[in-house]
Amino acid sequence: MRENLLLSDNQDFASVNSTGVVTDNVFDMEANSGAVAIIADDQGIGYMNVTLNTVPAQSTIVATQGVVFEVRTDAAAALTTLPEICGALSVIPSKLVAGAKFSVPFRMDVLQKYLGGWVRAYSTAVTGTIYADIHFADTPISPNESLQKVPA
Question: Is residue 145 included in any domain, yes or no?
Fold first, then answer.
């Protein structure tokens, strides 16, 4: 069974530029869901799994250099103060298609307070809107998960 921490649920990344956009959810690594302090700066290891639900037509995004999906940690929830990039994956335009699935492995020995996802254009802004499901998990996602055998 895969453990999931939801970062975005069909979040719309409209006209993503090189500055980037934070995911809807960012995790406070120093407090639990009840805002009670827990172990500070704990180690993080795992995968940020991305499923592209809807993307602009290839003819629309061909002028971009692609999209970068990053795992960031920072002292502020906006992930823009002094962010550290724990893992990143650059996806070229021809692989930005609806239904595409890929994983960004990450490992960070000492996390800052917040951990989240970040989506940005590699260089040239993406025209149109990308809708994606993004989550952290302890295992990578497979492009062929729907083809996996199940017990009879």
Answer: no
